[in-house]
Amino acid sequence: MKNLTLLLILFLGFSACKQVEKKAVHIEKEYYGTTKEGKEVDRYTLSNDSGMKVHIITFGGIITHLYVPNATGGLNDVVLGCDSLSDYEKGSPYFGALIGRYGNRIADGTFTLDDQTYSLVQNDGKNHLHGGTKGFDKVVWDASSRIENGKAVLQLNYLSKDMEEGYPGNLNTEVTYTLSKANILEVSYRATTDKKTVLNLTQHAYFNLSGTADILNHELKLNAPHYLPVDETLIPTGEIASVAGTPFDFTSFKAIGRDIKKEDIQLERGLGYDHCWVLDDSNKGLRSAAILQEVNSGIQLEVFTDQPAIQFYSGNFLDGTNPMKQSDSFYNYRSGLCLETQHFPNSPNQASFPSTELSPGEVYSTKTQFKFTLIN
Ligand code: BGC
């Protein structure tokens, strides 16, 4: 009898735990809008009982809102975005979007693979930027969601057809957003091709942890002792330069605004920070790449990735023309910053950079995590 009571207590305790675990994350789906081409777009909301909530739409896999707990017990929406599908369709500066097939620039919009030269659209002066005119940020992804191992999972799939935007190979792409109870939003990428191609996928969220006019007071640390200097058109020169003694040294916490106005040819070319930092590879695999802090909100964002580099872009091309969501004002110069985990820009034309080629039979598989905590 005693044993039976004990068993009953254990069983009830176990079921209660299971219930708590089941309820710790949530997923909702609703209609968001219809594209100009007549495709329906849904909005998924992943949330957890720690207060974190993220809205993601199937158009571009865009993170439209990302609410995280601040130090005073409230929630801050820490990403820039638009209010409607038509605003996103008109073309935002890639607010919150998935970027593909190639994040950042390919020089002169061309590259050669196995003696075959491919031509891409030159949508950034003479260069190709972020996958072209209709990159992965502007397509409607197939979506399915589930709760798995106590985490909220949104799986997005897109088949990019052979020669879409000029890239070879039918590319089966899968991007999975996963929200955990511990306020980690993970983005994992998987792709296969039926023809040799190049690939560099990333996420283009613009962060502002406090909602202030600009991000110059945010403190940033990058676990990167080197960065890639660029030419006048923001194509890496090929040099892998040490950050020591330069405004590009973020190896310990530094306010973004501290050195941004210093006289420096690289800052001049980028109009601020718009460069690729080469991550410290001493611990390959998923590792801490960047930590961003904002003291007034008390929010800290730590970015983990298995990618070789991170593009830190200080929002230098934001020019007051993009309407601010849920507001009558506009996003101004440097009102958000991007931390884009990726391979080096223009790798297809730079033999000394890590390869971005993907061949039939190989699986492209990479992962990035955005972890939100309070500054301690
Ligand atoms: C690039 C910038 C570009 C911006 C577009 C960033 O990833 O580094 O040069 O202007 O995307 O929004």
What's the helix count? 3
What value does the average pLDDT take?
Answer: 94
Please compute the radius of gyration using only Cα atoms: 21 Å
Helix share, percent: under 10%
Based on the coordinates given, report the CATH architecture. Answer: Distorted Sandwich
Main beta-sheet annotation:
9 strands, antiparallel
- Which segments are poorly predicted (pLDDT under 50) over 5 or more consecutive residues? 16-22
Q: What descriptors fit this protein?
A:
376 residues, six-stranded antiparallel sheet, binds beta-D-glucopyranose, Beta-galactosidase, Chain A, domain 5, globular, mainly beta
Summary, kept brief:
The protein is mainly beta. Helix content is 9%, strand content 40%.
Please tell me about this protein's structure.
With about 375 residues, this protein is mainly β. It has one domain: Distorted Sandwich (Beta-galactosidase, Chain A, domain 5). The chain is built from three helices and 30 strands. It has helices at about 1-25, 85-90, 265-270, and strands at about 25-35, 40-50, 55, 65-70, 75, 95-100, 105, 110-115, 115-120, 130, 140-150, 150-160, 170-180, 185-195, 195-200, 200-205, 205, 220, 225-230, 240, 255, 275-280, 285-295, 300-305, 310-315, 320-325, 330, 335-340, 355-360, 365-375. Strands 11-12-13-14-30-24-23-18-21 form a nine-stranded antiparallel sheet, with no helix packed on it. The chain has a six-stranded antiparallel sheet with strand order 17-28-25-22-19-20, with no helix packed on it. A five-stranded antiparallel sheet has the order 1-2-3-4-5. β4 and β5 (about 75) form a beta hairpin. The longest helix is centred in the first third of the chain and has 22 residues, at about 1-25. The radius of gyration is 21 Å and the shape is globular. The chain starts with a helix and ends with a strand. The model is unreliable at about 15-20 (pLDDT under 50). Beta-D-glucopyranose binds near residues 104, 234, 313 and 317.
